[in-house]
C-alpha cells in the first residue's frame, strides 16, 4: 500500500502551482533537503533505519523530516517486503509527480533510451523491453518474489499498480500511465515495450511466473491490466 499527500491522475496545472511553494518550503530546511536528495539518489526505496545510519541523527528526527516531505507530496511511503514476524518496514521513494521540478529524473528518460535502442538495433520494442526487464530484475534482491519485482518496477516507473491476487494468477491494474502523451501517439510501441519489460523480468524468475497478457486501455484513463500466472514448482508448492 502506498501513501502520498495526494493521489493524482492527469496533472492539473493549478495543483502544480499550489504544490511548488509548499514543496519549496519543505526543502528549505538543509537537513530535510539532504534527506530528500539521499532518497532521490538511492537505487530504490529507503527505510528510516537506512537514513538514520546515513545521517547519524535521532530516529524520531529522521521520521519527522520524512513525514514533512511526504505531506508536501515529495515522497511516497510504501510497505516493504515481509522480512519476518511483524509488519513490513515502511520505505520511501521520490514521488514521480514532482519530476523535473526538483532534479528527479523523468520516467520519459528511460523510455526514450529503450526506444532509441530499438531503432538503432532493428529489434522490436518488445524485444528491447525484455532485455531491459532482465537487467532490472538482476538489480533486485534474488529472494524477492518475481511478482513483487514486477510490481516494484511498475511502482518505480510511476504506474501506480493495484495488485489483485487470485488462486494461481495475479493481475496488476496500472492505475496511472506516466507516458500518457507518448502512449496516445504510439500505443502499440509503448505497450509492447512494457509488455516485453514484464516478460523479461519473468524470464529470470526461475520459471515460477509467466506473463499471460496485457490488456491496454486509453492512456488518459489508465487502467491497463497486466496478467501473470504462477507456475507450480516441482515440489508442488
What report would you give on this structure?
This protein is α+β, with helices and mostly antiparallel strands and 237 residues long. It has two domains: 2-98, Orthogonal Bundle (Arc Repressor Mutant, subunit A); 125-230, Trafficking protein particle complex subunit 3 (Muramoyl-pentapeptide Carboxypeptidase, domain 2, 2-Layer Sandwich), CATH 3.30.1380.20. It is built from nine helices and eight strands. The strands form two sheets. The chain has a four-stranded antiparallel sheet with strand order 1-3-4-2. Strands 5-6-8-7 form a four-stranded antiparallel sheet, with helices on one face. The protein is globular. Mean pLDDT is 82; it is low at 1-14.
The CATH superfamily of the largest domain is known as Trafficking protein particle complex subunit 3
- CATH architecture verdict of the largest domain: 2-Layer Sandwich
Low-confidence stretches: 1-14
Following the backbone from N to C, one meets helices and strands in this order, namely: EHHEHHEEHHHEEHHEE
CATH class of the largest domain: Alpha Beta
**What is the CATH fold-level name of the largest domain?**
Muramoyl-pentapeptide Carboxypeptidase, domain 2
Total count of strands: 8
How far apart are the first and last residues' alpha carbons, in Å? 26 Å
Structural class: alpha+beta
**Lateral strand order in the biggest sheet:** 1-3-4-2
Report helical residue fraction. Answer: 40-55%
Question: What share of residues are in beta strands?
Answer: 15-25%
Compute the average pLDDT.
82
Shape: globular
Radius of gyration: 19 Å
Mind describing the biggest β-sheet?
4 strands, antiparallel
Number of discrete domains: 2
Amino acid at each position: 500500500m502506498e501513501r502520498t499527500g495526494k493521489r493524482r491522475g492527469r496533472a492539473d496545472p493549478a495543483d502544480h502551482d499550489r504544490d511548488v511553494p509548499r514543496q519549496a518550503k519543505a526543502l528549505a530546511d538543509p537537513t530535510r533537503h539532504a534527506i530528500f536528495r539521499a532518497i532521490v539518489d538511492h537505487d530504490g526505496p529507503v527505510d528510516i533505519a537506512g537514513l538514520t545510519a546515513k545521517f547519524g541523527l535521532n530516529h524520531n528526527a529522521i521520521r519527522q523530516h520524512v513525514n514533512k516531505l511526504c505531506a508536501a507530496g515529495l515522497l511516497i511511503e510504501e510497505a516493504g517486503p515481509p522480512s519476518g514476524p511483524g509488519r513490513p518496514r515502511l520505505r520511501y521513494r521520490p514521488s514521480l509527480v514532482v519530476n523535473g521540478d526538483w532534479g528527479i529524473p523523468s520516467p520519459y528518460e528511460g523510455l526514450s533510451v529503450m526506444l532509441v535502442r530499438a531503432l538503432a538495433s532493428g529489434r522490436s520494442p518488445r524485444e528491447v523491453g525484455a532485455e531491459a526487464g532482465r537487467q532490472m530484475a538482476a538489480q533486485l534482491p534474488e529472494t524477492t518474489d518475481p511478482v513483487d519485482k514486477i510490481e516494484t518496477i511498475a511502482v518505480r516507473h510511476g504506474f501506480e499498480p493495484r495488485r489483485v491476487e487470485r488462486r494461481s494468477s495475479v493481475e496488476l491494474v496500472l492505475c496511472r500511465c506516466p507516458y500518457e502523451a507518448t502512449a496516445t501517439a504510439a500505443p502499440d510501441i509503448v505497450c509492447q515495450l512494457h509488455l516485453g519489460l514484464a516478460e523479461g523480468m519473468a524470464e529470470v524468475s526461475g520459471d515460477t511466473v509467466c506473463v499471460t497478457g496485457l490488456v491496454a486501455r486509453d492512456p488518459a484513463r489508465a487502467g491497463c491490466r497486466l496478467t501473470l500466472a504462477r507456475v507450480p514448482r516441482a515440489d508442488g508448492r
